[in-house]
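Case study.
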Amino acid sequence: MIENLIDGPLWYFSLAVFVIGVVWRLGSIIFASRKQDLSVARGAAGPAAIKTVFSRFVPHKEIVSQITVPFVAGYMFHLGLFALLFFAAPHVAFLEENLLGFGWTPMPHWAFIVASQLAFLGLIMLWVRRMVNPVSRLISTWDDHVAAILTFVVMLTGCFALLEGSTGLRLLHRFSVELWLIYFPFSALMHTFTFIPSRAFTGAWFGRRGIDA
Amino acid sequence: MCLALLPFQVFSQDKKPEPGVFMKDPGSELWRQVRQRDMEGVGISQVRGVDSGVLINARGDQWARFRMTQLSTYGGFAIAGIFAIVILFYVVRGSVPVEGGLSGRMVKRFTDYERVVHWTLAIVFLFLAITGLILLLGRPVLLPLFGKEVFSLMASASKEGHNLFGPLFLVSLIMMLISFVRRNIYEKGDMTWLLKGGGLIGDGHASGGFFNMGEKTWYWMVILIGLVIAVSGLILVSPSLGQGRVIMELSHIVHSIGALVLMTVSVGHMYLGSIGSEGALEGMKTGYVDINWADAHHDRWGKVCHEQDLIISAEEYARSQGQKPGADKMETAEQSK
Amino acid sequence: MARMKFFCDAERCIECNACVTACKNEHEVPWGVNRRRVVTIKDGEQGERSLSVACMHCSDAPCATVCPVDCFYTTGDGIVLHDKDICIGCGYCFYACPFGAPQFPEDAAFASRGKMDKCTFCAGGPEDDHTSDEYKKYGRNRLSEGKLPLCAEMCATKALLAGDADVVADIYRKRIINRGSSAFNWGVNDLNLGG
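After joint prediction, the assembly is written out as follows.
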């Protein structure tokens, strides 16, 4: 009964919410009407936009010592999560069977485990840092906490189901993923996609004014 | 033996002919070897694998008996006992207030990074403790409550979670080792603290530096026992390294005893760091502690803070925490008056 | 009620490993898992003997004692079986078992153990008899067809005996009587041959 719901309608519903929500939100950001920039162009906006998308992957030298924990833990978490999301053998098999119809070479089991350990340690350290640093705590909204905790729950239920031997634990993981997918478009989790237009916008704005930052 | 046989041999030398083929009975020799009472004479098998040539591993039964009768029983009593002791202690002593109340003037104790390391280790430790206890005590305690099917899910989740989080404990332990080791080296005055019973017994406070002797001892327990737990855990978690059963059984014993010791003491640590001692949790939460708390619990460090003028006012502290100056800290200062 | 037992006659076992192969084939167990193995003591020396060993289906099984999820059970025939739906693959039964019977499918480094697999005395598992589910998890259920374990049935020298403990004991007793006052009787030590 509940198995059919989680594997069937709820899965398609959450997937639809995720896809439609992400497309709608991204579209509304990209096609939003903006004030025409009346300033005299001192530089090209386009190249600066592309440059900024990549240059922001590395923090500025001046502040790197201040943000060592979020910098290192952030990369641990994001790279680990990306690797285990798309290259873990059970995930590749799932995507092939249920969504795409084709698969790719998954990473070996030990790499999967190491990736998830990096992701777990990174996420825990990021969240703890968010709580103990007064500035981070002050600017964190409840949405940030829900997003972090929901992602942690998804990863934790996935870790619980590692034996791949019981339906109950698999359903728990899948259910948490569905909640996560539904929450995704309406939350801070959208930074998965919005970081690109956001950086590009800043870069273009700076580039037009000839600011090299 | 030899000496006893010697005269006989000398005697019979010229009477009896040379003995023929002297051999042991293969039938009884076989079973002597199989039992491996002297732990030698391992056989060979076409089935390749660690220990596949061992027919009977008698240590397994010793391990099983230890785990089922001693480990889970005494372990369960230890965990239940420490909670009882802490509750009893709280009822008797209550939360120990800071002498002279809180002043509202603060002094920096821990950096962001140090608190991140502490809480990361704490979260990983608690997760491992809970999942470990489910595996150790689940069968007598939880299985009758939930039934086999549900408990099997819990135990499977605990095992996988425990295995995955284990190495994280080692990593955060090493971060803990590096960032706190300098202040945790024992120094002069630590014996006095011990002789005064750490201030737990009786009234007067025991003298302490940045960390007092009890904290230092807890730190070294965490580091040393933690390392033993981590290494023995890694031996248990990777069965494909080629270690035999006997090594795994010993690792399991070391792992579980060490973990139970740490868990038991950690309950005391959590109590003293939170409700047991007024003003102590602030240090790990915000990084700042009240100067009166520092003077009371860590007088030698408090003196240094006074001398080097490291104390900040309530307003400065509130600003550092992103609050409007004097929003709620003034209240505390007033109350303490 | 019958009480099922294996017995391996060390004077007859010729280490042909047919029992191992038959078991692997009959139950289609995965790579790396061997429910039965033959161990040779004093290989190439005087007094070399071989024994075929698998789960001994103990009356007071240590695996069942230590299992943290209590997945073992003893059938009416005295066969120790386990429920793979309950098993969590912790490996405690492997530590406790004196005979090294519990096996775990495992591959590379960091791989945690899969669910335990061991000799079922060809009696399947808790699933309904002869279902594909039962076959996938536990292998063939020969006992319910009135057949004995394949390893013993096909042993060329009839060294490996399986069946009701009383019958097995009777067969072995007769063998001992027929062997008569062999110099290799048990309990006789330090023989002086010749002279």
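Observations recorded in class. The mean pLDDT of chain B is 81. Strands of chain B lie at 21-23, 44-45, 106-108, 288-290, 311-312. We will return to this complex in the next lecture.
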